[in-house]
Fold this sequence. Notes:
By secondary structure, this protein is mainly α. The protein has helices at about 1-40, 55-70, 70-75, 100-110, 130-145. It folds into two domains: about 1-40; about 55-145, Orthogonal Bundle (Cytochrome Bc1 Complex, Chain D, domain 2), CATH 1.10.760.10. α2 packs across α5 and α4 (about 100-110) crosses α5 (about 130-145). It is rod-shaped, with a radius of gyration of 27 Å.
Amino acid sequence: MKKRRQTRVQKKRKQALLFIAIGAIALVAIAAAAILSNVAQEGQAFTVEVQPALLSQEGEAGATLFKMNCQVCHGPNAAGSKLGPPLIHDIYNPGHHSDEAFYLAAATGVRQHHWPYGDMPPQPQVAREEVSKIIRYIREMQEANGIVYKPHSM
């Protein structure tokens, strides 16, 4: 009788260990799925729908310069891509990112702060006068898409 009881206890211990092992495997599988899901999302582009704008002459010149220097990362019409964020986005409204922020970004680069794309390197091939035209293009596109000055609050 004592031996039967020991056998039952051992059987229950084995079952408990089996349940714990199955639970641990399930948790690892769930965690792995979550990690893979996040990795997949990070590889996706964050883009916005951008309505075309009627551009001024300086805005048109800025559009050409943007295509040559910025579009590879920031996407067509500054709508974003897998490599860089959309600039036609409320985060870049003139009250939050002034024109000077764009000049600094081109001259010195930008540390990652709003988006998961990593740091933006400096763009020394773009002269300050060219950056002015690119900013004009971005601001005209923003305005055409309802993005206007809003005071930045901290």
